[in-house]
Backbone:
């Protein structure tokens, strides 16, 4: 096997969210336990942006049409995004995070938050660099490091047993940094578990980054969707050195604007410079007309975000209640975002077979835990940004199939 | 300097098309010759998509709005693009190129043609791989190879003196392939010169690729805009082995749809598979709602393409006539596309100073030849997809400034 083939063998997408359609429907008889569980199809691999669930934030399409009408000036922006728009977005993000952002130097607009993540890693990770990655965390993180030729240094979080925060062991993180780590990447709230890092954890990360000269990339995609009883702590507003941190966000999730492919990275200006150079050869710029849609971000109608948060929280609570009734299942109640990560009881079939059985027998798509950590062979992730009733019924079908597929205790 | 800093020092974008705004307006007095040359601003660094020049092909915005209306199914496609859409696009591209394309395996939809180019190179070039690049050619080509850690093997074309084709020396190409080249990348028509490769050149490339096991990536962005007296030869329809070629196209130029960020790569299925894996971590997918706009591609109203081609050809002819009147200036008449690449007479100032003087004194933006070849320190590229009258007047101002800045022959 040649080297490029090895490289791509690590980048499998067969079980990635949204790719299930490419797997086909065949399932060995040995895996099937009982007949079909009927009910409306629910695809928990991503949020439902249809009108019956969580449609795009108001004004998005109108802003796009206005952008198209501006013609060339909107189609051909600087690679880092239109200058006026960056002024506006920088102002809003500074207000949101509590940290000033210089629009001309410290912000880049990208094709989706995924684009921002790629540029951030591409701007910081070179062949052979050691990169600390949380386990579990967003499935693309380790693949990005693999593609760039870096070396993953896993840092576990004890999200199920921790009470106050994400369950990050700062001593373990320091050991990783001591071992020569150049970059630390994590999502807050954590994807897939929905746990928020505590103020102590955020301050601890900042201090260690400063002490060991580590660049920190923090994926804050879900930082606007925070449930009652929780507060959000922005790493960029902590004591971390300004040239050590890059923050990533976008309107694809809470705001349901994924179809426009918009994201941002902001922070250390030398990294934003590199990100722009890389964007120039990766995709030139975020889609020109779509950029205009960012004008509606953080400018939603009064009460819109609160209402969206309340509705998600209600779904969260109902799903958690159904899941907690399953003997042997463990799940942490998410503090933010729309993911939950359930650890299944001991099962009589393999995780990937169970996930396929769910799809084929119960009309439910979930993402296997192994996308987020090689150790998570007993967990599934659900994006519960769905129609409320359909989601509850789908999770009830999941619990039925769990019961059918349990390991037989002799 | 650390390794990642070196890597990015090669990826400069200061002189890249569209980035001129970041350069500022200061120019040393010593560079200025005479006063301002007034006239309507023309930005030859990219095409003008406004209504007074070449607006987007009909139906694009309507198709986008329809796509948005389809909701989640359009926002969250497979990473390689929606299945139905790929069927439609594959059928059209097969008809256009004369080569069958399997929609499920041999086509990926990307964020712009730039996205396709990045994925194609990312799928084929590993650290240390030798990659043959034409000189001059699209400015991102060598930067992509640099970013991926490959080694550029330049292959010159004698575009000014060649009569029948692009001026590729097939013996030189064979020498490059013999030296261990793994990948050959070229644009046809060539960007920046607008020359088309002859049937003999295309067949020669195909034979050499087969003989030496080289993968060829051909950027056919401008292959629909072909002027009278010229015919287009698709490499994918030549005798090249199907698993050796990947073709790149998109509707950003001829169709003026750059603001939607759409492109395609089609060909070798194992490379399309890799491209999709890479897309999953780079940008997830081409913008979902924008994908719907590809339905209008190759489905423009009767006569639309012919009219657009005729109008471009008329501008081309007028600009070439103005430029040919300049003593000492050389330019090849483009056979396709909307670029022309003019070699200036001996000048009394440096190329980059002349380009800045054009912007500051004559209200004209052009791209310096050094973006396309380190040797092209005497050439400028113009994208003449502009308002006809404004373009002619702007090129007249260019000729005036050339005369002012000529080297003084003693």
Residues:
């Amino acid at each position: 096997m040649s080297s490029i083939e090895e490289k791509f063998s690590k980048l499998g997408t067969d079980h990635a969210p949204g790719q299930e359609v490419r797997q086909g429907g065949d399932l060995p008889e040995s895996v099937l336990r009982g007949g079909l569980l009927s009910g409306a199809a629910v695809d928990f691999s991503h949020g439902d942006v249809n009108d019956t669930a969580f449609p795009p934030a108001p004004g998005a399409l109108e802003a796009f049409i206005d952008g198209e009408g501006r013609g060339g000036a909107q189609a051909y922006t600087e690679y880092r995004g239109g200058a006026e728009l960056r002024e506006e977005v920088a102002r809003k993000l500074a207000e949101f995070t509590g940290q000033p952002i210089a629009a001309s130097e410290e912000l880049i607009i990208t094709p989706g938050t995924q684009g921002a993540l790629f540029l951030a890693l591409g701007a910081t990770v070179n062949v052979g660099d050691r990169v600390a990655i949380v386990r579990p965390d967003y499935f693309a993180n380790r693949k990005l490091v693999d593609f760039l030729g870096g070396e993953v240094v896993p840092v576990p979080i004890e999200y199920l047993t921790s009470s106050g925060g994400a369950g990050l062991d700062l001593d373990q993180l320091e050991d990783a940094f001591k071992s020569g780590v150049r970059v630390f990447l994590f999502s807050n709230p954590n994807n897939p578990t929905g746990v928020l890092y505590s103020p102590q954890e955020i301050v601890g990360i900042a201090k260690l980054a400063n002490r060991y000269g580590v660049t920190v990339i923090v994926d804050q995609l879900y930082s606007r969707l925070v449930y009652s009883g929780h507060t959000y702590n922005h790493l960029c507003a902590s004591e971390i050195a300004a040239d050590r941190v890059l923050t990533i966000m976008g309107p694809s999730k809470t705001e349901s604007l994924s179809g426009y492919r918009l994201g941002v990275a902001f922070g250390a200006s030398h990294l934003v410079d590199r990100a722009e150079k890389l964007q120039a050869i990766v995709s030139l710029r975020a889609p020109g007309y779509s950029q205009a849609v960012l004008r509606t971000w953080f400018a939603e109608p009064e009460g819109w975000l609160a209402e969206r948060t309340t509705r998600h929280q209600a779904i969260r609570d109902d799903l958690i209640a159904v899941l907690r009734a399953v003997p042997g299942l463990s799940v942490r109640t998410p503090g933010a975002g729309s993911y939950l990560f359930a650890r299944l009881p001991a099962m009589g079939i393999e995780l990937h077979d169970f996930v396929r059985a769910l799809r084929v027998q119960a009309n439910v798509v979930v993402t296997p835990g192994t996308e987020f950590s090689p150790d998570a062979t007993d967990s599934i992730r659900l994006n519960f940004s769905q129609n409320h009733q359909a989601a509850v019924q789908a999770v009830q079908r999941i619990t039925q199939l769990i019961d059918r597929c349990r390991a037989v205790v002799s």
About this structure: Chain A has two domains: 3-56+303-404, 62-296. Residues 62-296 of chain A form a domain with the Aspartate Aminotransferase; domain 2 fold (CATH 3.40.640.10).
